[in-house]
């Protein structure tokens, strides 16, 4: 049976050749037979299925892994009841694998069990497709995930053996599997030494744990009678590595001396070379299946490291370019001595923690030109160091400052392989073998190069995916606004979720815009489609909405203009949009809809939620369709919830179900606005099936109390400027804002003076609003917006707005139906 590399696994070897006459005549000789190895995990699923298991049971590895062991192992198919002889000696009759093993698959086996079964395997070499199987099962305990180890063998190869002159068939019928402790027979040392080789690829600690349990429970044996017990050890089918090496050396010496190479050595050399090549190909094939299961860069690095330890090497250190780790591009050309390399993984079979302090993961360092690492990264070729000398160990250790790495690397065999893709070196792996393990050779160099090429391509795919995801995330974040949580008279919370299957870039957006009169525009839109084109279209529409909202266009007119703009941009894209203007003083929401799902209004008085009944309208981009706006009365504390259809639509489900869930979850009490958003997301996102982007905006409409608003009207007479200063000072003293009175009076004086000078007929209106800030607005009937200008020393006019810009927290202008509004804000003093 094979070890972790499946090296030379039962390759067409004569079954049971070691369990022949010699084995029976001399019980001290271990019986060598091909074994199948199966490991069952704690969930009852197959976690390891060896090459021998594939040949014995006729099930490919890819079909066996992860499947229920009960469905694969021969728990049924017992020998017929009409057998004339009792085929199991002292063990009696077994039903399939016997009730003990079958119960073990259900988690009840607490002791080793053995048995025999006759199976029908259509693809097996036997003419009738029926084979007899011997099996041994060991329950596994401990921290590992493995729960059951099953060894199995085909008895057919033992028919040729005739112990004590008995007929072969009769001898076969009397063979039974069993267990024996190491004190019961000689040959235990060899078996104990070879047991780790039949285990699947796992760490040294895990394999040692399992071996110790097998030794404690008893060796697998074949029992020809109650007195003849033969220990079972795996048969490789080809000589082991040391034997192969010795025979190759004999053939090479003969050829070097000009002597004819014995035919048996030549044939064996060819056979062994074939086995070695197949061993490496099987290893590469298995590694390829274990890496690249994820496009996550960190996960890929872990997969690559674990794929080579301990099967190919005992220590694997992975280094990547600094830019690769950061998800950035890097300059063309080969690396140099200034290139920084990040150590991203260290996998080893040494005792835990031995490498952690000396070579911690996450450290970045350059490598000088005299090191084999620099040679590998600049040439792009593997570098083989058969054994690290004391001198080389000292040179390498000098790179690690005060940490002495020499005890960890000296006298070990080292192979440095480049991780490259598309002729670019992304990093390299340092592979080290323990001194007692065979040195890396030229075949290992070729295998390492192929391994690195495959791993490099997988890493590059992960790197490119990470880079593109970072670009997409940056693009999306740049397009989505950073909305302040507090606007005049309302609190706002938002959420954005990218489509689960369609990347991070989409056409959904939300926004809020400050408007004159302490009003706030709330916007949610969705460009149909996905990807960069939709995101680009979304960016243009969002910018247009912000611009038109600043002009204080009514909602229906704004959507009309947005539709005209979409027509000019092209007829490729459509978009839905919901545009609402909240007036906290008038306690109303003025809202228009362009093909979007309606918002939800949650009433503060009784917690009732409802979908607002709005004229639906056509999507933006259809063209030639009128839009209507409605006004909805609201009360302080009411909440309005606006979202895109990706939150409520699920494939195969009517949208009304999602809208009903939205209403229900929006009405759920929450401690904060953020908690309320999270409640909605949880309620709608857990249904599954969501593939679209989601934009969610929630606003709590707090309103502004009448006592916090003061309004005056002034005639178009310069004498009114003094009265404006007086009433503003008096009001601020009444509000307890006397500290702001001086600056506020000065700024109001400048704005009212300009308004009186430029108004045509309508009186000038002045309004003060106390909220998070002190807002002052001056309205007149002149449509020309004032601008900042530079005034010379002799100029009589032009300094007013300069004063406003200097003293105000913010200021601005906007057109209205009747003219314009000029406003400024002052920060309230701390209490």
Estimate the global geometry from the Cα principal axes.
Answer: elongated
Assigned CATH class of the largest domain: Alpha Beta
Beta-strand fraction estimate? 15-25%
Number of H/I helices: 23
Would you identify the CATH H-level superfamily of the largest domain?
Answer: PPM-type phosphatase domain
Low-confidence runs of at least 5 consecutive residues: 1-29, 75-101, 160-171, 236-240
CATH architecture of the largest domain: 4-Layer Sandwich
Percent of residues in helical segments? 25-40%
Largest sheet strand order: 12-11-10-15-14-13
CATH topology name of the largest domain: Phosphatase 2c, domain 1
Radius of gyration: 41 Å
Count the domains.
5
| Mean pLDDT value | 77
Number of strands: 31
Largest sheet: 6 strands, antiparallel
Describe this protein with a few key phrases.
alpha+beta, Beta-Lactamase, six-stranded antiparallel β-sheet, 31 strands, 33% helix
Question: What order do the helices and strands come in, and which of them pair?
Answer:
Blueprint: H1 21-25, E1 31-33, E2 36-41, E3 46-49, H2 51-57, H3 61-64, H4 69-72, H5 98-105, E4 113-120, E5 130-139, E6 146-154, H6 168-173, E7 176-180, H7 188-194, H8 204-217, E8 219-223, E9 229-234, H9 241-256, H10 263-290, H11 297-308, E10 315-321, H12 322-326, E11 341-348, E12 364-365, H13 372-379, E13 383-385, H14 390-397, H15 406-409, E14 413-421, E15 424-433, H16 442-479, E16 486-487, E17 490-497, E18 506-515, E19 519-530, H17 532-550, H18 555-569, E20 575-583, E21 588-594, E22 600-602, E23 609-611, E24 629-633, E25 638-643, H19 655-666, H20 673-685, E26 694-701, E27 709-714, H21 720-734, H22 741-758, E28 764-770, E29 773-780, H23 800-807, E30 810-815, E31 820-827
